[in-house]
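Contributing new complexes? Match this layout with fe (ii) ion.
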Amino acid sequence: MNDWKMPSVGIESMDDEHEKCEEALDALICKPSVATLTHCMSILVEHFQHEESLMKTSDFGRPNEGEFSPFANHVKDHERILDIGFKELGKLSQQGSNEQAFLSATCSDVTDQGACATGQA
Ligand SMILES: [Fe+2]
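Output block (do not edit by hand):
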């Protein structure tokens, strides 16, 4: 279990979704598999869509100011994260039985797998 927690953004629906993202990422890092990666991507896609929609309707991040607005940069961050995840899923579809080793190697770039295995993370 990783000890990460996003601070509240002051909107209950976003805080709830951030908690689901944290849980999905935690499950992926501690038990990497096609199932946990697929679930994580599903949660992230749904959350990013909600968040971008809410940012637009509330004019957060100055979405009307074009491609260099904070909103546009945040959308680019979302796209970059989703691109990483979907590329990994694509590689897994070609790797077959090496799934566990591949995902463990990928996740070790993000966190300490040994700590996950011993429950110290
Ligand atoms: Fe978010």
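Reviewers usually confirm one structural detail per submission. For this one: Residues 18, 47, 51 surround fe (ii) ion (CB under 6 Å).
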